[in-house]
Write a structure and sequence with these properties.
Rossmann fold; nine-stranded mixed β-sheet; disordered N terminus; alpha/beta
Length: 195
């Protein structure tokens, strides 16, 4: 099984490129580009397969960057039906049943941390449930310190830049599992990705 450790950065460079155009930086961030909705789904499935329960995944990005599509992949990676996943903008939180429960929150309409406390998002946090939060920046101090942040940016009509940042020990372990699954997948496919 491939090592779950991040590639070591060269002392003279802040980032080291992997063989497939993905980059792991010295601080443990993972930079990648999704070239299609299918690629976004594949990355989400890797994250879903790597979840063990209790993790919080915060999604950051403008409208249309693929946050809900990524959560759809995460749900599928957990064994939940991906078609059931929709943006919970009006109900704020959906819970999907899979290998682990996935609480999916969309904070687009949240205006303050006080308002968020009334929603009860933290009521979904336990050691068995994974939580994915769209518009996580609106949660402010209500977000746990240990979380995996995923920043998405437009890179064209179908392409999205993604940066995964592990904030804490649990999230570093999650990111290491994602990278290990990614390496295993690339070894099986010869580095070919969904288009």
């Amino acid at each position: 099984m491939p090592s779950a450790r991040l590639p070591a950065a060269r002392p003279d460079a802040s980032r080291q490129r992997s063989g497939t155009g993905r980059t792991a930086s010295r601080d443990g961030d993972w930079h990648t580009v999704s070239r299609s909705p299918a690629d976004t789904d594949r990355i989400g499935r890797l994250i879903g397969r790597a979840l063990e329960g209790g993790e919080v995944v915060g999604l950051y990005g403008a409208l249309g960057t693929g946050k809900t599509a990524l959560v759809r992949g995460i749900a599928a990676g957990l064994g939940a039906p991906p078609r059931a996943v929709s943006s919970p903008t009006f109900v704020l939180v959906h819970v999907y049943a899979g290998r682990l429960p996935l609480a999916h929150a969309d904070l687009f309409r949240i205006q303050s941390e006080t308002e968020l406390r009334h929603v009860g998002l933290l009521d979904y946090s336990d050691t068995r449930t994974a939580t994915a939060i769209e518009w996580a920046e609106r949660a402010g101090a209500e977000l746990p310190d240990d979380r995996l942040e995923i920043h998405l940016d437009h890179r064209g009509r179908r392409s999205r830049a993604m940066t995964l940042k592990a904030k804490g020990a649990r999230s570093r372990r999650l990111l290491a599992r994602v990278l290990s699954l990614q390496a295993t997948e690339e070894a099986k496919t010869g580095g070919k990705r969904a288009r």
